[in-house]
Amino acid sequence: MTRTQHLTHWPQGTRCTAQERDAEVLFWNTSLHKVRQARKETIPTRGAMPVIGLRYQVDTPCFEDGDETKLLTND
Q1: 8 A C-beta contact, residue 39 and residue 21
Q2: Distance of CA 28 to CAs 18, 23, 37, 64, 75, Å?
Q3: What is the mean predicted confidence (pLDDT) over 58-67?
Q4: Coil, strand, or helix at residue 3?
Q5: Distances (CA, A) of 35 to 52, 65, 69
Q6: Per-residue model confidence as pLDDT tens digits over 2-52
Q7: What's the CA gap between 5 and 62, in Å, rounded?
Q8: Measured between alpha carbons, how far is residue 40 from residues 27, 69, 71 in Å?
Q9: What proportions of the chain, in percent to the nearest 5, are helix, strand and coil?
Q10: Which residues have a Cβ under 8 Å from the Cβ of 67 and sit 6 or more positions away?
């Protein structure tokens, strides 16, 4: 099943965004260079979060499916 969410703007404070290997989309308040470097250093089971750091994450888009709120991932 495929879900689509159209964003009219990025969340406030976002400088760049990247998609994790599990398809989760993360918005970051850090340089594009730092995100690109983190993607090179990550291992598939951990993603970029441990390398970049939680303090730089701005948002993760969610959608509502009936009464359930879900992250945008491949799950």
Answers
A1: no
A2: 8, 15, 13, 22, 22
A3: 65
A4: coil
A5: 7, 30, 27
A6: 455 566 677 888 898 888 877 788 889 999 999 999 888 888 778 888 889
A7: 8
A8: 18, 31, 24
A9: 25, 25, 50
A10: none
Pairwise CA distance, residues 17 & 44, whole Å: 18
Rounded to whole angstroms, what are the CA distances from 14 to 27, 28, 68, 70?
A: 6, 5, 26, 21
Cβ atoms within 10 Å, residue 28: 23
At position 1, the amino acid (one-letter code) is M
Picking from 8, 27, 15, 12, the residue whose alpha carbon sits closest to that of residue 72 is 27
Enumerate residues 6+ apart whose C-beta is below 8 A from 70: 3, 62, 63, 64
CA 67 to chain centre: 23
